[in-house]
Amino acid sequence: MMLNGKHIGIGLTGSHCTFDAVYPQIEKLVKLGAKVTPFLTFTVENTDTKFGDSADWMARLKSITSEPFVNSMVKAEPFGPKTPLDLMIIAPMTGNSISKFANAMTDSPVLMGAKSTLRNGKPVLLGISTNDGLGLNGVNIMRLMATKNIYFIPYGQDDYAKKPNSLVADMEQLIPAAEAALTNKQIQPVLMQQKEK
Hints:
Layout: E1 7-12, H1 19-31, E2 35-40, H2 42-46, H3 54-64, H4 73-76, E3 87-93, H5 95-102, H6 109-119, E4 124-130, H7 138-145, E5 150-152, E6 155-157, E7 167-169, H8 174-182
Parallel strand pairs: 1-2, 1-3, 3-4, 4-5
Antiparallel strand pairs: 4-7, 6-7
Helix pairs in contact: 5-7
């Protein structure tokens, strides 16, 4: 399997409602033989929400991968030339992180990991989850889509009636999207039709 033996960073940002869809995919990466290093934003590590307490999410993550958390800029910095990743995945990726990444604002361990990976000429895979993907953040998503070595997990509107600007990646496609990104290809189709509810 293409993922066996690969060193993959998995960046989690604060779309807490999407964690339940992402964690099983992290488990699959580990079962497929990847070395998975978690990168965390400060929000992810320290915020309790209606979707669960941060301590519980962190404990679950520790049970999936034995790699230490990258939860500070100091810990993220070596993932440049010193400890290169084969692939950096950010899933879920909030609108806030999308905006910052598209505009070169590296202010979290997750974005530092992504910046370092791009600097090394390696792929970065994004699994977006944002309420303004078809609003103000649309320009940032398109900027990232046009950037070399950045790839996307297929995404679409998750509720066009109640949240017409919202876009969410289909996290079930994380593994095939990762395999495609490792061969410098964008899995297609990247834009999905909304599933019937």
